[in-house]
Amino acid sequence: MHLVPNTPSNAIYIGTSSIDGNVCIQSLVDPKDVQLRNFGRPVQAVALSPEYKNDRTYISGGLAGNLVLTIGGKAGASQSTTTGTAAATASGWLGAIGLGGNAGKDSILHSGEGTISTIKWSLSGKYVVWINEHGVKIMRSHLHLDSSDLESAWKRIGHVDRPQDNGWEEMAGVWKGRAEWIDERSLETDEDDKARETSVASPATAKLKQQASKSSQKIEKLIVGWGGTIWIINVHPGGVGVGKHVGERSVGKPEIIKM
């Protein structure tokens, strides 16, 4: 067996889920750094935190309709979920007397809207999108929060209803939505590069372009395909409101720009 070199660039973890309810997280470079967790119902989607190596955090969901946040977990062990089960009671009791070990902790972030088919972290790690039978939902994650916004972790910031075409009531559990966060830099063509190299701009124009580029980088773009419908969604960063919302602080706002 050929081992992958243990270098920072190879510090990659792979998460898989299955219909038998298991989620498996495996390190690419360390065969011993693996954990298996059983959620009791088929799991259709799992998404690892971009900082999984340090925070041991991932989100999963499936037929049970629960969006579950898992933090921690013991490497080299097979464990069961701690959400509403005997395992949760035992883990809590043993932990109280110092014998619980690192079994990890599961929290239900959202539930009750049917099968969850897709979960994706944004490219910056600030947002998470998931799709269930009712629609598309976006929330703020725990990453890159200012000290004044710590309570905003895992707060939902938007919802887009599922397409309203004929047949959805009967087929919502079968037709699955898919989502991908867009890296606009990867969409640039060779012509774009040549244009940049040959263009000559004044210092003032260059400064304005730089400011516009910084502003656009704060907006994260998401493309969603569901049946015959395609959405492009801009997720704007949060901040302090103005006008009638002056003084109010938000953690982000989604905007459908094409439908």
Explained architecture:
It contains five helices and 16 strands. The chain is α+β, with helices and mostly antiparallel strands. The chain has a four-stranded mixed sheet with strand order 1-2-3-7, with no helix packed on it. The protein has a four-stranded antiparallel sheet with strand order 4-5-6-8. A four-stranded antiparallel sheet has the order 9-10-11-12, with no helix packed on it. Strand 9 and strand 10 form a beta hairpin. The chain is globular and about 45 Å long.
Compose a concise summary of this entry:
The chain has 259 residues and is of the alpha+beta class. Helices cover 17% and strands 38% of the residues.
What's the structural blueprint in terms of helices and strands?
Elements: E1 13-17, E2 22-27, E3 34-38, E4 43-48, H1 52-55, E5 57-62, E6 67-71, E7 77-80, H2 86-96, E8 105-110, E9 118-121, E10 127-131, E11 135-140, E12 156-161, H3 168-171, E13 178-182, H4 190-198, H5 203-218, E14 220-226, E15 229-240, E16 249-258
Order of the strands making up the biggest sheet: 1-2-3-7
- What structural category characterises the helix and strand content? alpha+beta
**DSSP helix fraction:** 10-25%
- Which strand-content bin applies to the residues? 35-45%
Helix-strand pattern, N to C? EEEEHEEEHEEEEEHEHHEEE
Shape: globular
Distance between the termini: 49 Å
The total of beta strands comes to 16
Oligomer: single chain
- Give the helix tally: 5
Radius of gyration: 21 Å
Low-confidence runs of at least 5 consecutive residues: 86-100, 211-216, 242-246
Largest sheet data? 4 strands, mixed
Average pLDDT: 80
